[in-house]
Amino acid sequence: MIQSSKQVRSLPPYLFSIFHKKKVALTAQGVDVIDLGIGAPDLPTPPFIIDRLAEEIRKPKNHKYSPYGGCREFREAVADFYRSHYDVELDPETEVLTLIGSKEGIAHLISAVLDPGDGVLAPDPGYPVYQSAIHLAHGSTIRFPLDEENSYAPLFNQISPRDISRSKMMLLNYPNNPTGGTVELDTFEEAVRFAKEHKLSLIHDAAYDLVTFGDYKAPSLLQVPGAKEAAVEFGSLSKTFNMSGWRLGYVVGNKELIRSLSVYKSNMDTSQFLPIQLAGVTALRSDFSSVRANNRTYEQRLDLMMNAFSGMNIQAEKPKGTFFLWARVPDGYTSQGFSEKMLDEAGIILTPGTAFGQKGEGYFRMSLSVPIERLHEASIRMKKAMKGG
Ligand SMILES: *Cc1c(COP(=O)(O)O)cnc(C)c1O
């Protein structure tokens, strides 16, 4: 009898696959399900990026293994992006590493750095992958709250000395999934101070770094002077350039952390397909007009939904980043109860806040990664279901 390892058997079920099963079942029954649980862009990859892939894939020299840490061109493009966007200098050789998507990198870094029993401070609510990766690395997740009253920034001085002393790492994520919370550089300054004082490695997941609205520009953690002594930042082309299926990301910052991850990965994979990395170079060296156009699309959808919510008495603050809307469930409902009601009575998939941790109780997350007509339809159905009581 073949059995999975204890660690795999005791993993919490991956939430999004549960919703996927429900969606398949309902669709088979003829229900026109509107899936607002999606965590990936619905818009296509810009054609200029596809053109570069098409060009590079025809060259036989690109059919071989990539160097383990990724090709030099991609690492230089990342370093140049950090210089032009954030005024941060990086050594492409030692301070940049290509990843097969940032999820892979985050999970493997945790494994590369943790010893059994080590704690990791992780946000609640937060991206579920953090907890699973810590579990697979035999570590323990120590959650710190992100509260609406504090605009979803961490309250560093409320983390207990015991929790701090048990921890080896701290994870942050801004613009934040699921809350849409954003921060200014002072929060990162405090984070770096906190990490250095307590000898923690600081890991920043910046998957939505360029998915922002209006005048807001998300800072990089590496803009904090001396951040590289304690921190790395993960970036991804998935959300910014609608490349989620391509699997391309990077990590930048602290040399020692990057070296650990690089050693670990060189025993697991051989980096990403060269034509994909080279297409990524074209993306990172572009004028970013495709990113601005995407953001305008998300913001129109966001405005439509914010309007609809105010007519339904659903409270939500307009986020400055990400393509998620984090909203309070109406009075009298739990997160799970409200999400179930919307699925059963309106055919809409919303993610209950509790999918991201206990602190998500009382909230739901709605993805704006569907065409505006579908969002409009969803708002009509929601309104009707709520009138029905
Ligand atoms: C989508 C997402 C990622 C994963 O991105 P990939 O680069 O596609 O692996 C990482 N972190 C958060 C918070 C995300 O929402």
Automatic annotation (TrEMBL):
Domain Aminotransferase class I/classII large: 32-378
Cofactor(s), names only, from the UniProt record: pyridoxal 5'-phosphate
GO terms for MF: pyridoxal phosphate binding; transaminase activity
Keywords from the UniProt entry: Aminotransferase, Transferase
EC number: 2.6.1.-
Source taxon at top rank: Bacteria
Record bears the keyword Mitochondrion: no
Keyword rRNA-binding: no
Family: Belongs to the class-I pyridoxal-phosphate-dependent aminotransferase family.
Protein's recorded name: Aminotransferase
The organism of origin for this protein: Halobacillus faecis
Organism lineage: Bacteria, Bacillati, Bacillota, Bacilli, Bacillales
Gene: dapL
